[in-house]
Design brief:
It is built from 19 helices and 18 strands. It is about 40% helix and about 15% strand. Strands 8, 9, 10, 11, 12, 13, 14, 15, 16, 17 and 18 form an eleven-stranded mixed β-sheet that branches. It has a four-stranded parallel β-sheet with strand order 6-5-4-7. The protein is α/β, with parallel strands linked by helices.
């Protein structure tokens, strides 16, 4: 589309696209002023984004009317780049193939849901196809952001409760100083693990075995002793996998946000992980507990991979990372959650029906698979492999190379069978009064509530500071703070 800059009747610049006017041909600046003056916002956003404002006459009027807001623009056409200076930021649609992803990388969920989008009227008529695509991308990103905030608001409270239990009851701490110079096997519980169990058992001393929580039962049942287990899930049911570690001296890496019963926390040897964000970060750092940096991820296998890349120097082999639904059991057996589910089976709701439902496509697996495929990690002088007998092109993980048993055995045939323990042990006892002070610090309370109730705070913006929502937040925080105080004051 050809953009032409020409003079309007009053001598100001105006613009056309293939002969269609994008601004008034009589008084383009006055047109922009009226556009902003007539705009009535349904709520007070934090940001306004104008979809293709062309010569940007409206920018100054937006700043004048809404001086406290950030004003941005989405550009459809590169010929208008020279008119960007009036805006606080610019998003170029014309050079962005995946605009949804671009939006979500540039704005977090709260920022997106606190933004008011508006089209420059002429652009919506002249660039109709682009306009429809942009609005669809905005809609999809908004819907996904709302879903994420619902999830966050649910889990943030759980993570905070878990963190208080963790810091209150964990005592046996391990860490390590140097990077571990051994090939690492990351063991997940997908059925593709089954052909390798005997080999891993017989050759386990050749590797550092990092076992994910869902595979703990499988490893212990087959006399595979992990060097380290890892759990990251904050939900109750994830903690069921850890029961098998009771009475064992097998260390576990976990962030304070992960769920683990307090009786098990007292006993386990724990390698604390810290993500570096959220309330849990402040509580963990205040406690003085020694942690290793980890990266938050939607799946524990993602966190484990990034952990191995950071703290190990040799090749990384991933087992049981199927990332696809299977016929029958979705996990290698035994599996603690399957054992729990079996107790509820009966003639009407039987095992066959339950397993058939589990074979249906799981959307979360597609999300996790996409993360592995698209987030290439630099590994100098080493490789990341997925060991799987039947490599499916539709289920490949991009930069992670699929290899079979023959290739795996060749790559590791010269590994030393010497088993070493890299961990340093220490005792930890938390001064819970310090944590209690954080939760009662009035200066920090507002930030804490904002993180715990992100969806409610977005609703506050859209409902112009509703007293009902404010009271709801206060009531929720009052009940939660009492619960946390009880945890931190509870006697051992």
């Amino acid at each position: 589309m050809k953009i032409t800059i020409q003079k309007a009747k009053n001598g100001e610049n105006t613009a056309t696209a293939d002969g269609y006017f994008l601004h008034s041909n009589y008084a383009p600046v006055k047109e922009a002023e009226r556009f902003v003056e007539n705009l009535k916002l349904p709520y007070t956003p934090k940001t306004i984004i104008v979809l293709e404002p062309c010569l940007s006459y409206c920018a100054d009027f937006f700043h004048k009317k809404f001086p406290e807001l950030r004003i941005g623009a989405i550009r459809y056409h590169k010929d208008f780049e020279k008119y960007n200076c009036g805006f606080d930021f610019i998003l170029n649609y014309f050079e962005t193939p995946d605009f949804e992803t671009f939006l979500e990388k540039n704005f977090n969920e709260e920022e997106l849901l606190s933004t008011f989008f508006i089209s420059w009227p002429a652009s919506s008529q002249v660039f109709k196809e682009t306009e429809n695509d942009v609005w669809q991308a905005i809609k999809n990103s908004m819907e996904r952001s709302k879903t994420l905030l619902v999830t966050r608001q649910y889990f943030e409270k759980k993570w905070l409760v878990n963190s208080c239990y963790f810091l209150r009851y964990v005592h046996n701490i391990i860490t390590f100083n140097n990077k571990i110079e051994k090939d690492v096997l990351i063991i997940s519980s997908g059925p593709s693990l089954i052909p390798y169990i005997n080999y891993i058992r017989k050759n386990q001393n050749k590797f550092f075995i990092l076992c994910l929580s869902s595979a703990i039962s499988v490893c212990l049942e087959n006399q595979i002793i992990p060097d380290l287990c890892m759990t990251t899930d904050g939900g109750f049911w994830a903690g069921e996998h850890l029961k098998k570690l009771k009475g064992k001296h097998i260390p576990v890496a976990m962030p304070s946000e992960a769920f683990c019963s307090k009786s098990l926390l007292k006993e386990l040897h724990v390698l604390p992980l810290i993500y570096g964000d959220g309330i849990s970060k402040e509580l963990t750092e205040t406690s003085g507990i020694i942690c290793k940096k980890a990266v938050r991820n939607g799946t524990v296998s993602g966190t484990a991979l990034l952990f191995a890349v950071q703290y190990f120097t040799k090749n990384i082999f991933m087992f049981g990372l199927d990332m696809a639904n299977q016929k029958g059991f979705q996990h290698t057996q035994p599996n603690e959650l399957e054992l729990n589910s079996t107790l509820k089976d009966n003639r009407i709701k039987n095992k066959e029906t339950r397993l058939s439902k589990s074979e249906l496509t799981n959307g979360s697996l597609d999300i996790y698979k996409n993360w592995f495929s698209t987030n290439k990690i630099e590994c100098i002088n080493r490789q990341v492999y997925r060991v799987i007998e039947k490599s499916d092109r539709k289920n490949n993980l991009g930069w992670i190379q699929d290899i079979d048993f023959s290739c795996f055995s060749k790559l590791t045939q010269n590994n030393s069978s010497t088993k070493t323990n890299p961990f340093i042990h220490s005792e930890f006892h938390c001064d819970c009064s310090k944590l209690f002070n954080i939760l009662n610090d009035e200066e920090k309370t507002e930030n804490i509530k904002h993180q715990l109730y992100p969806l409610d705070y977005v609703s506050l913006i859209h409902n112009n500071g509703s007293e009902v929502i404010i009271q709801k937040i206060e009531n929720e925080w009052y009940k939660l703070k009492n619960k946390l105080s009880g945890i931190l004051k509870d006697d051992l």
